Structure formats: C-alpha cells, structure tokens
Amino acid sequence: ETGVTQTPRHLVMGMTNKKSLKCEQHLGHNAMYWYKQSAKKPLELMFVYSLEERVENNSVPSRFSPECPNSSHLFLHLHTLQPEDSALYLCASSQEAGYEQYFGPGTRLTVT
Amino acid sequence: AQSVAQPEDQVNVAEGNPLTVKCTYSVSGNPYLFWYVQYPNRGLQFLLKYITGDNLVKGSYGFEAEFNKSQTSFHLKKPSALVSDSALYFCAVRDQTGTALIFGKGTTLSVSS
Predict the structure, then answer these.
(1) What sign does the CA torsion over B50, A28, A55, A83 have?
(2) Average pLDDT along chain B, 113 residues, taken 10 residues at a time
C-alpha cells in the first residue's frame, strides 16, 4: 500500500464503548497528525507527533487519547464519547512537522 | 494572531472559464502557504505550496497560485475549469511554532457544464 491508510473507514459506537482508530503511513515521514472535521466547521487539529513525541495538543478532551508507537503508526483511542464527537477523523503525515501534509481517507465516526 | 481567511463559502464557474479561489493570511515572518483539495468522503489532497522564490507556483491538475506579499494573499487559479474540479478547497499556512498548519474554513468550487 502507498500513502496514508486509515482503519476502519466507518465506525458506529455507543457512548460507553471503547474503540481505536488506526493510521499508517508508508511515506517514510517523521511527523503525524490527527484532525477532526465536522460539518460546517473548520478543520480542527487535535494532536501532532514528531519523531514519535507529542509536540502539540490543542486542548482536546481526555476521552481522546493518542498513541504513536513508531514513526509509521498512529492511533486514536476513544472512550466515553459524546454525540457531538461524531465527525470525520483525518490522519496526516509530513516529512517534518510543519511541512506539506499527506492525508488518509478518514474514519467516519458516529456516536449514538 | 495567526489566521487564514477564505472569504467565499462557494465559487461557481462555467466549464472552460478561468477560476479563482481566494485566500488571505496573517502570520509573522515569511509564510509557508499551501492549497489542498477535498473530494466527497475523501481526505485532503495536497495541490501546491509556496515557501520561497517565484511568486507564481504551479501545482497538480493544472492549478497554480499567486503569492502577493503586500496583499498577504495566496489565491488559487486555473485558466480553464473542468467539471471534475468541483470540490472543497482549503488554504493553509504554517503556524509560528513551525509544527502545524492552520487551515481556512474551505471554499466549495462548483463547475457547471
């Protein structure tokens, strides 16, 4: 596979569930990102990892927990979500933090 | 404050006509600027960037963008629009920490046949 992949592509979960989103980049990049995209709202940066260390956390609720075990993989662990967390969650990577980013197709999350 | 503005929610053009999608920015120092396109149910695709050099930047799918420092603008252009160009377009600027991009709210481009 090439580029940035995300699994699952669609996820429906109840407010008491625990689930994880997975992102994998095949580009040899050193930085990875999580974004939230809601209808009629700007793209929201959630987390930035550079060389597997978190460098930015934009006041994201603790019910979202990122994990970056290596430079190719990024996870977003979800627990006790709210209906307003329903959105498209996008993963991206870049050669270095702050350079052009390459995005995965996203995970469409619905919280019921 | 750092910011990116895309003043138009939607731009409508006829196929074959030139198109412009506007973007203005506010950031200290020399800006790193980007354009992305998003098709329905897809992630964002990188189109082009300006870091330094020639003010006219050429990118993918025939798109180009013009950097204007005095007007703090980075408008996206294409000489002849295609129906397949219909999508959501995002302008972005690198933030002052140098670790992330700030995205505009997006402009929907609709090209009619």
Answers:
(1) positive
(2) 93 98 93 95 92 93 96 97 97 90 95 96
